[in-house]
Amino acid sequence: MGGLAFASGPNPVFTPRMRPEVYYAVRDRCQEKLRELFVAVATPIEGPAKTDFGDIDLFVAWSRHDVFPPLESVPFGDSPESPQEAISRALGAIQWKSDNSHTMTMAIPWPGDFPFGNTEAQLTEQNIDEDERSAKDPKPTGIQVDIHICKTLDYLQWMLFKQAHGDLWNLLGSTIRPFGLTIDEEALYVRIPEIEEINRTEAKVLLSKEPGKILHFLGLKYDDKQWEEPFASDEDIYEYASTCRLFWVKPKISVDDDGDAGNLEVGGGSEEGEAAVADKRKLKSNDRRRMNSRPLFRKFIEGWIPACRASGRFSSPSPTRDEVRQQVFEYFPGVQATYDSRITKWRVKRQRETLWKQVIKPAVPADLDVHRRGSCTSALKKIILNGDASFDGIAIPPALKDENELFDEDAVRTWVEDNWPTVLDVAWKMNQRRFAETMERKAAKKRTVSGSEKRAEETPRTEAARAGDLSERPEI
């Protein structure tokens, strides 16, 4: 079956897989119609040797209505169609749905000039034509089309690059990931080891959004038609992916080996089988899912890499992660400054979270009265972490911090051990004074409220007395 976005629901649409001639004809027709609405319309380069297709992906940018606005304004009170509504009308959608403003999925009618069926073999075997199928299954037959509305031409270019050749970037992603590199739907990044296990988003430092620079850095050729048309076979795309300068296959793997890039074999055999099991355990969760749903990726892991290992291909030692990071700094200007700044800010943030619990509090004797100890540690936290000078001017020596605001934890511990009695004395006196002032304010407030209540009680009597005085006046 093909796209399944409309396979269920109140009005399901039957969207079978398309033979290549159906796919290319419908793709081109959709592009032609969408060019009436958008300046840029494109489809990523398809995967290698495709014998059928599940859906059609179309990327668009630069609405003609925005780039070339009409001479006459829209009549008052009328609202123009949304991009999704205009697209669905242009393509004659049977159904469509959208969860956001930049993507939509639709089912369009199966073209009448192409015989229905998944493959010629299935048509011959089942001997089913469109009329006969319709009599058995009343659901309309359609083709699933996924539309991606890009805000800029640069983003459209990036998405065409990232989605090109089907699963190519799944193969390359598994190759570059052990070296601290990550590519997503926006750019190529280098990850900071110290941060990535705790916060994957903050660990990513942007390298580039330019396809040419990325391919050049990874050693992948783009001088011929590698990025103009599909590869002829799965083997061709594997050969191309393995030209990445970071691709390598470890000649031999032990079960206890931590592994590295290229060690992704999954297969049988005694020693080879043990290595394969160890390799499979090292796959990331995303890669394990791809093993189940992406045949091209699964064949790469189960067949291509073991074959390379058996023949001794790509066995030269790869650079280390540290070496690749240094290459990143040299190739992408300005990245090292951003990288260093990010890791410094992270360390300061993390140290503030740990210094209080692991250094300051433990340095104050635990056998103090709980209230006095709490007053002391709270004051120490304000003095050390916040630079609070309100405790009779007590401050930590500047030498306890470096130019990046990172503390020398041993020096902080020593300073706390030497100075906590003084801090306790000042902080306790301040607390006592604040407590006395608070009690005095409460008492004053209580006196004020009581006096107001008394005046309120006296007011009726005063008015009655005045009324009496007036009543006793002689008439004029």
List keywords for this structure.
alpha+beta, disordered C terminus, 476 residues, Beta Polymerase, domain 2, five-stranded mixed β-sheet, elongated, 17 helices, three-stranded antiparallel β-sheet
Structural features, described:
- The chain has 476 residues and is an alpha+beta fold.
- It has 3 domains: 20-163, 2-Layer Sandwich (Beta Polymerase, domain 2), CATH 3.30.460; 168-330, no CATH class; 362-444, no CATH class.
- Helices cover 50% and strands 9% of the residues.
- It contains 17 helices and 8 strands.
- The protein has a 5-stranded mixed beta sheet with strand order 1-2-5-4-3.
- Helix 12 crosses helix 13 and helix 16 (370-386) packs across helix 17 (409-471).
- It is elongated.
- It starts with 19 loop residues before the first helix and ends in a 5-residue tail after the last helix.
- Mean pLDDT is 84; it is low at 118-128, 255-270 and 461-476.
- Residues 452-476 have a biased composition (Basic and acidic residues).
- Residues 439-476 are annotated as: Disordered.
- Count helical runs: 17
> In angstroms, what separates the terminal alpha carbons?
110 Å
- Indicate the mean pLDDT: 84
* Helix content estimate: 40-55%
Region (Disordered): 439-476
Biased composition (Basic and acidic residues): 452-476
